[in-house]
Amino acid sequence: MELLPYHEDVSPGTGGLPPRAWCAGSDAAVLSLKGSWRFRLSPCADAEDESFAAEGYDASGWEEVVVPGHWVLQGHGSPAYTNQMYPFPVDPPRVPTENPTGDHLCRFDLPDGWPDGGGVTLRFDGVDSCAKVWLNGTPLGDFKGSRLPHEFAVGHLLRPEDNVLAVRVHQWSSGSYLEDQDQWWLPGIFRDVTLLHRPEGAAGDFFAHASYDHESGTGTLRVDADVPGRVTVPELGVDIATGDSVTVPVEPWSAERPRLYDAVLATPGERIALRIGFRTVAVEDGLLTVNGRPVLFRGVNRHEFHAETGRTLDLATMRADVLLMKQHNINAVRTAHYPPHPAFLDLCDELGLWVIDECDLETHGFTMRGWRGNPVDDDRFTPALLDRAARMVERDKNHPSVVVWSLGNECGTGRGLAAMAAWIRERDPDRPLHYEGDASRAYTDVYSRMYADHAEVERIGRGEDGGPEERAQLPFILCEYGHAMGNGPGGLSEYQRLFETYERLQGGFVWEWIDHGLKHPALGYAYGGDFGEELHDGNFVCDGLCFPDRTPSPGLTAYKYVIQPVRFAYDAARGTVTVTNLYDVADLSELSFEWTYQADGDVPSVSGPLDVPPDLGPGQSVEVKLPRPPEAADAEVWLHLSALVCEETDWTALDHCVARADFPVTARPPVPVATGAAPRRRGYDTGLGPGRFDARTGALRALGDVVLTAPPRLDVWRAPTDNDDGAPWQPDTRYGPLWRSLGLHRMRHRLDGVESTDEALTVRTRVAPAARDLALRTAYRWTSDGTALTLTVSVTPEGDWQVPLPRLGVRLGLPAAYGYAHWFGTAEEAYPDTNPAPRMGRWSSTVDGLHTPYVRPQENGARADVRWAELRTGHAGPGVRVVGDPAFWFTARRWSTEELDAAAHRTDLTPGDTVWVHLDHGQRGIGTQSCGPGVLPQHELRVAPAEFAFTFSVAEPVR
Question: Is 480 a catalytic residue?
């Protein structure tokens, strides 16, 4: 048998200590080795010998890198992104000769007062992908498993001063075949490196078992420990020996009420602070329950990512993630596709999130070989798989937030996964197992799918999906859905309705939390291909609910209200609202409720409290009487309902909005059509009310003193979203490429006639793409009452249209000075399937503020259900007013659709001399076809005859 070097050997490592529990609260001495380390990069694994690790080696001529960190983000080489393709030839366990290798040296002294005696452990929390370690010239061992901890005993090698830690890190190793995880390939020592003093009698490994009996209201605590000691919980009056059990009345831990009890594990040499959360997880009667109640995951997948530091995250960033999740009603995290930094789980315990903790394992690239040679079905790799499972479970087993273990992601099936499942079940029988890739559910306790469409999910909810009988008895989750790439995702509210209808459907996890755009001086944020990669998957790495700087996207805001834990239903006839508590565990005592009536007009808004019982329990509803709405004869009135945080919390501020809903109270008054004035020819122009038209073409040139840069004309094209373009492997029709092949981005406008009568100016056109026999016969009929202009657009299709339209409306251009917008409609970006709880009202923004800065530019920024919109030269300056009949989508931006379509990065967009205004009668939905189902039928924009109208007038300055 060929003897392979350690980085290609399938062994998980040599020389290390057994895995053990994460401990953040010990009173033993600790020394962090983070900081500036000496660094040398070599092009291959054996380009340099190991003499750099010997004592006395002079590394003064080396570069420096910050540890923790990735060397490719510090000027040494470049990052690369692939989704599933291995960026090297697939020949497990061998890797390329070209294997960037980073040698690291850290010199350190022990601090004054460092204890004598005992032992010392050197801990690495994360190194990508393989490391060999020396201390003071003595080899300690090597390891693989990038997102997992590894420890070495080093007490016998330490000296008070001038210690030298040497670490050789290889980018590629046999472990790389287990880490094909749809993210940037980023080598380096990217998590903490720490020296931990281990006094005589220090605690070794320990396992805190804290169950809850929901019938008796008691918790049972037992802490098993390698070293005997005592466990005290002062608040509960508990003082027991390790290994003993005690049952006492407690408040249970849940994601909604994360009750923790401070405890201490004391051994002869160490005191460890514990945070105990009592809870019991079970699969009972086909449902996943916590503390006897089924839970509904309102979840998100989370890679660890920072736009400047990659997978190196500080505590503040991790806390920011958890707070943002809580503030957006997210109650669960799947740690895709590896265990996170352990401090993140501490925050989940403290602030309250259900966690599916996923093992550091994915072999997705083997799909390109039909799973031939898949390591999870190769017995040579089984020890490495078991090592990864053990390191995850042992590190994270004391976190109450971890309610499910996941074997990994997209690994096919095989004997190695079965061995992992068997080991985990024996070690921790109190948590269920998850793995999406096993259709038989032979080694999992939940039925999990990713990107199943709505119809399939409903069949599963009804129990009509077929499959093995054993699977039919399992709870179901969507471990990935709602692919949040670019504009979107769409269709989430329809999924949520299914989750709330069928008990077996226990929610899902949107893919994913954050766009992985790397900060770039020229591009804004870079994605796959921007670093010259040979193979890459483009901006598929930017598919998050947050932008790379953690600014929430419209998708995150929409998801917040899709999954909001309170439902409102308005009964106009009875003048009541029904409030339903959708929490799994909590009552509504932390929330206050308000109503507001708002009118589109001069009628002032009125508000007041809504009397909802604070003890309204999960699943319960109450009907509450509302006051009479204000009288508003000539204006429509809307009811706005909201649920606000009314108690101090550790995750948000008072009055934070948790849930909301808007309902129309009175109908919109009829929109008057401007008529009565007659067109008048003046040389090359035709005048009609405030409008000045080109007499030959009928194009509107000016409205009052406002000279248009482009006249209104029919528009059907939008810069395709990532979901419009879709993914090649998705079964639904990919309309983005089809639209482009049909030529919808280059429609020709043929003038068929201009007619002027005493009543109207009518322009008849045919709008069609070259080389096709499809067309939209379009008539523009202009009328005026002398002060306003009404444009009635009539559209009649010609030909066999087999595709929906991206949009249907008119586009016009105003001078750049008209850069401030006011409108009555939805506050946020909204498309037919992306904004389930729009805030209706009067809003204002700069035109720049209307733009949504997706990492790859695409259609964005539309406001829906707009009654009227104004573009002004300032907040109160003069401008143009447009009133729609019916309501319309309103978009304004400083670049044309063509420029938006051509842009690859944010920095490609440069403001011009025009504000481009879109007034759309219809918009197609967004869907999730970048990796999921397309647009649902009810959100398609089918080609059909249409008529819609806009009334234009001059908006006078506001005094």
Answer: yes
